[in-house]
Amino acid sequence: MTGASTVLSAESLGRDVGAVALVDHHVHGALATDLSRRGFEELITESDRPTPSWMTQFDSQLGFAVLRHCAPVLGLEAHTDPETYLARRTELGVEEVNRRLLTASGVGHFLVETGYRGEELLGPAGMTEATGRPAEEIVRLETVAEHVVAEGTDAAGFSARFEAVLWERSRTARGVKTVVAYRHGLDVDPEPPTLGEVTAAAGRWLREAERTGSVRVDDPVLLRHLIWKGVERGLPLQFHTGYGDPDLDLRRCDPLLLRGLIERAQPSGVPLMLLHCYPFHRNAGFLAQVYPNVYFDVGLAVNHTGARSAAVVAESLELAPFAKILFSSDAWGPAELHHLGALLWRRAMTHVLSGFVADGEWSRTQAVRVATMIGAENARRVYRLEGEPGVTVPR
């Protein structure tokens, strides 16, 4: 294929990938309040430390992507400077910024995890109002447990109370999620704890909560209990794995550490969704290949690798069956992250798949079908999103 033909093929494939109404299977809400420059910069990095005065977070792959791809959506030239961008953001106001960026993302369905500082963000209803697209909830197991303790329980009654509240909270949810990676690490004992172990651990937790005033759950026995109750709930169970803020120990966030739990959970048939995975996404691909109940994405990494995101997406396509890979953004806060999560993923998929087509390894039809599977169809199947619109694949 000549150079001109290759470019035309990539442009044509890009239009088809751009037409997919994505299902963002793991996302948080957009911020409902305006941001200062400092506040904005704090939210385009996973660091939880103050930015040194001699640097800016705009000097990063994600920062450059904001100025390149979000600026035009707000009516500015691409590659504008941070000061001009943030002034325009303030001029438009958060509601208009959210409307423009969320709508331009082309996401057709949001599955919104509400467990982290959810009061500061648009919930599922707010995301629907801003976009006109359906948005449904993913329930965080640890948040449910912490609410149970905050509302009052004793150690002996904790297990039953948690299970009852979980079922009620997830009655209309599409999935549940655990942040065991943050609270302990993925190297937990894969066996379900006994009721006696849970009661004893709940007693320790309640005493510590009374002493400190904090109800954060980080006891490995209780975390295992929450996970197995999540499995019993029967909805897709999401695991944060890999890259995140310094609250986690990245060395203990390799999804390979979940292998024992994956094998024990397999008879349940519950889909186990490995989120983000970077830099362990090749390990996640192995797990998705060999275990029928495992799926994965590279969501968070796509935004933060920016212009290099095509390399991450390419590596995610190496081992796993394409029916086991999903799209997510893991956007939290600025709507720029929701927009870029979709845009950079589409650009990366187009770049990678058009290369396969140009090399004669894939047909164009295969490329469009795989992009549609990963971008939407796999999530519609796993989360049982009945009635979702399909995409006509050119023949």
UniProtKB/TrEMBL annotation:
Residues 215-385 form the Amidohydrolase-related domain. Gene3D superfamilies: Metal-dependent hydrolases. Pfam families: Amidohydro_2. PANTHER family: AMIDOHYDROLASE 2 FAMILY PROTEIN, NODULIN 6. This is Amidohydrolase family protein. The lineage of its organism: Bacteria, Bacillati, Actinomycetota, Actinomycetes, Streptosporangiales.
